[in-house]
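Re: that chain you flagged

S.,

Sorry for the slow reply, it's been a week of failed gels. I finally had a moment to sit down with the sequence you sent. For the record, here it is as I used it:
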Amino acid sequence: MAALRGAYPARAAPAGSDAFSIVTHDRADEPGSPVYFLAGADLLGRQFCCYDFLERYAGVRFLHPDFEHVPPFRGPPQPIATAAAPPEFRYRGLYPWNYNYDRRGLSTFCDINARFEARDWAWFERLGDWLVKNRQNTLFWFDDVFNDDALSARFPQALRRYWRERGLRQVLGLGWGSNEGRPRGGKWEALTCVDAQGRSIEEADWRKTLCPRVPEYARLAASNIAGVDFAAPEAIGTLIGYGENTWAAHQASRCSRHAGIAGDVLIERDLRQVRGQVEARGGARLPLGFVISTHGANADSPFVSGRVIDFLPRNGLVSIHTYQQDSWNHFAPVYERIQARNAREKTAIRAVHIGEVAFLCNYDIPLFRPSILRRREVDLRSVPRDVAMAHLATLNTTQYLYWLKSYQMMRWQWHKDDARWSEGIVALGMDLFGPVHGKVFAELFGRLTALDYLQPASAIPDLLGSLKEPEKIRAWTRYNPATHSDTCGFYLWAKGHAPALLDDAARNAEACLALGERLNASAGALYRRQFHDTLALTAHYHAIRIHWGKAGHALAAVQADVAANRAAHIAAALGELAKMRAARAAFDVHLGKLVNTAAGDSVTRDSIAADFVRNPPLEFIDGKIALLRAAQAADAALPDLMA
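Prediction finished late last night. Pasting the structure tokens below so you have them in one place:
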């Protein structure tokens, strides 16, 4: 090897964490044939180099923990010259979230949870492989559970050793402070805040919360801390996860046990109590901080006072969790506060930025929504690199094309070049499906993007070509049943849209379905197995709402038009309701293929649809059709479809 290397011009070896380089030379003994020199600065750098070479030389795509794309070899590419450029973020990776879906009867709706409950540790090894193959180096397993032992403490030593030998680092997550998914009733009620009347917050309409002043809270924290290996060489920091607790996500809580004490004071008290225990168990070297899941640094946030940054240790961490509907700019004051303290006190406080790309409890799932990746792309271009030492993407599941979002995010976290988000998706389609089918896929992607943003098809070039995030559609949100009705999102296309836009959208949805069927018939097994049902389901989701809106406009025309046209308008409305019903039935067919309720889920397909995908039931549509036909036959006043 030394003799071979000496026969070619020398090049500086890559230096720095995770760095690597690939250099191509023309073979001295066989002109016209290349020889490639691969070099990595460290364990991960050498692995990254090999996987990068496979991608550039052979077109391999490491798409998913369970499958890869290996195209027919077309011969050596142009000379490969990969510089030893530093990655965008020192630490990059995924933030898998267990979320206790099994306790909600939805384990197969989230493969992270299902694999964990099945103790399928071989799959978690493949998850680690997937990160390394895509040039990632960090896992943050947030122990989002309310129990006596930390979830991550259940990982076997063999799995921990495997991740360590691959070079993966880990952010240690302490999750006893989280409210999400915990068991109700029993001894855990003692940890729940109460209001002034002594009623559990569990019974209130607003967010659930925990009280850090209850003795059992401290006992539970100590139990969880005892299960974490803070001396593990792969550990790079410790974060206490407060989830969306009312006292942690809001500055002014109203628990009678700590009435009048601001949320930031409670967090400071908690951090101070925990710090000594963590240090006693070998974690003194680790940066320590917290996760607060709040929507920004607004007037109701603990971040607004700045105290949560001021009382962090000198090497403290804070996790900035950006919800998929939000931008990191909501946290700009937090970054500025960190920068100011670091400059003033010579501290080394850093942020772990978490970009949410998929979360199975918020929007209408499992739709394909290009706008979420667009928002994350805008964020990645501007997140302050001097503060953010890590950028992680959430990972609830690798199903329903969510793997595509995670795959794209991992590539961006390694290096966000100047290419637009749409260019990356189109290039991927060309690689996976070939130039002919790739062009069809690109058109389908553009049309789905227009539907996602409630725009006409004529807006597709601007939507795909702009680097600016278009205005987001608030009507998508279906976050909390206490504040959003079951039909929130149902009126996505139905209210406030002109007939011309609805007509254009109907043609667009129909074109999406036709393009999808064309790809399903001829683009190959990868499209059929991984893309078709999610993309078809998404088009039908929009069609349900578009035809509902068109039916409403047809009936509104009866009120404004002469009586002679009443029959034509009613016939048009009935036709749209029939199309709406067909789209609703087709939606269920594709949902049934995506959701496997035969593998132990305690719920039916319909209840899954009711929990995650807010569609009107077929009985609702049939009832509207019957009312309209009755009014038509009796020549009576027409019903209000939107009621």
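What I noticed first: Residues 525-560 form the longest helix (36 residues).

Talk soon,
D.
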